[in-house]
Amino acid sequence: MKYLLFSVFFFIGSITLSAQQDLVWDAYNIGFTLADDFVETNNSDEEFSADGDGMSISIVPFSNDEIDETDITAFTISIFAEMDITRTDDISMIELNGFLGGYAEGSSDGARLFVMGLIDPNSATNFFVIITFHDDDQNAVDEAINICQSIHKS
Asked: Measured at the alpha carbon of residue 65, what is the angle toward residues 59 and 67, in degrees to the nearest 5?
């Protein structure tokens, strides 16, 4: 029985792992994990973006070596406010895999948005991450959280 349970968990875990792709944005040497249905739509020095089933992600770099986590949080909130968000679900400061930053989540006109501003304390290169999907898609919420948590320096 233990062997059967182990086999079932291993099989399920294998399916989950194979349903993801680990990517590295070589221009900035940052990595992240996306579901296997995502396809890159832009991979340049100015932007990385990809679209999946009902979900999109864009990562945009910017340079500023004087910004700190308080500044980036305020800047993230101001960008979020400029997007005409009708409902704000969460705003917070974050520390994520060597990055510091701010995070905002909300929705507008049936679309859900995750916006993160991330600074690299050891570099002048920083990033904005924007993930959009349908507001009523809980699986997409979980997937967006996993994407956000997977972002790391390579």
From this structure: 80
